[in-house]
Design a protein that fits this description.
Strand order of the largest sheet: 8-7-6-9-10-11-12
Mean pLDDT: 98
Largest sheet: 7 strands, parallel
Number of helices: 10
Number of strands: 12
Order of helices and strands: EHEEEHEHHEHEEHEHEHEHEH
Low-confidence stretches: none
Strand content: 15-25%
Shape: elongated
Structural class: alpha/beta
Bound molecules: NADPH dihydro-nicotinamide-adenine-dinucleotide phosphate, oxalic acid
Helix content: 25-40%
């Protein structure tokens, strides 16, 4: 079997080594060394140039190197073939760490103290107990449910919102459009871990933000286009929201001079919440290649109608 690898962001040689450890006979071709395009059976890609996948006439499977497949689905030339997204234990763990770090920042009011430092002001109140801080997670999938479990383990009051109803021990769950308002009303720190789909594009707008209690904080680690940027700035400037941490923005890299760079109540990180690591992710990729060969059901298959 021949697998084409393409990613402008990853160490291609490390991926080749990791894949060969699990499948020594695999013919791994590192783009742009495609060889004969007709020989390629599967493609493992991130930010593939539009048209690359369509140029492989015998392609049978597309594997995303990322958890989110929104950019891939936006390519009008994407072949109508099975598409699997990446689920990687390291990616899941790192996202959990990142969300935990930002929740702790807010729980221990480090955003407040950073502002006080700029004002040369020495003041404090007793910090709340974790059980007094309600963290609401939009999206209870692979990443959201793991982050929820970590936070729950730390004693936070965790709630989550998903499309389909869920029962998760120790976590208050809400589902669907009707569940959104009650979910938001009890959330002090909102974490977005939704995939970007037609339904979630612009979901964090003035209406959603108004549904949060005054003084709430926002952590967006999903996708930038889920947030209406102007509405966030309005909510912060009016004092309805206290602070936001944005790992994803609509245009990446964030353009010079964008108001987010200098807003005193916004922290920006350059889409670094989590990464897929070849040493832990390769096993799942190879498992799916074997499933393809043996005609068994693929794992982490994207439902194109849902968009994730
Ligand atoms: P999953 O597909 O496992 O989970 C998605 C969750 O979102 C599910 O719980 C799903 O509900 C819920 N959901 C989707 N659409 C809706 C909707 N319309 N209304 C309510 N809930 C909805 O995805 P992952 O957890 O693996 O990843 C989530 C996203 O995280 C990725 O798509 C990507 O955008 C982002 N990400 C960001 C990274 C970063 O570094 N910043 C790194 C990796 C991922 P249900 O369970 O009912 O299907
Ligand atoms: C992903 C990402 O979707 O890194 O995996 O954003």
């Amino acid at each position: 079997m021949a697998l084409l690898f393409h990613s402008p962001d990853e160490d291609a040689q490390a991926w080749r080594r990791a894949l060969l450890r699990h499948a020594p006979g695999l013919d791994v071709r590192l783009w742009p060394e495609v060889g004969d395009p007709a020989q390629i059976d599967a493609a493992l890609v991130w930010r593939a140039p539009p048209g690359l996948l369509a140029s492989l006439p015998n392609l049978r499977l597309i594997l995303s190197l990322g958890a989110g497949v929104d950019a891939m689905l936006a390519d009008p030339t994407l072949p109508d073939l099975p598409l699997c997204r990446l689920v990687d234990p390291s990616l899941t763990r790192m996202m959990g760490e990142f969300v935990l770090a930002l929740v702790l920042k807010y729980h221990r009011q480090l955003d407040v103290f950073a502002r006080q430092q700029r004002e040369q002001r020495w003041a404090f109140t007793l910090p709340p107990q974790p059980g007094e801080t309600a963290v609401g997670i939009l999206g209870l999938g692979e990443l959201g449910s793991h982050a929820a479990g970590l936070l729950r383990g730390m004693g936070f009051a965790v709630r989550g919102w998903s499309r389909s109803p869920k029962a998760i021990e120790g976590i208050a769950t809400f589902a669907g459009p009707d569940g959104l308002a009650p979910f938001l009303a009890g959330t002090a720190i909102l974490v977005c871990l939704l995939p970007l789909t037609p339904e979630t594009r612009g979901i964090m707008d003035a209406h959603l933000l108004a549904g949060l209690p005054t003084g709430a904080r926002l952590i967006n680690v999903g996708r930038g286009a889920q947030l209406v940027e102007r509405d966030l700035i309005d909510a912060l400037d009016r004092g309805h929201l206290a602070h936001a941490s944005l790992d994803c923005v609509a245009e990446e890299p964030l353009p010079p001079g964008h108001p987010f760079w200098s807003h005193p109540r916004i922290d920006i990180t350059p889409h670094v919440a989590s990464f897929s690591l070849p040493d832990s992710a390769a096993e799942g990729v190879v498992d799916n290649l074997r499933r393809l060969e043996e005609g068994r059901p693929l794992r982490n298959l994207v439902d194109r109608a849902r968009g994730y």
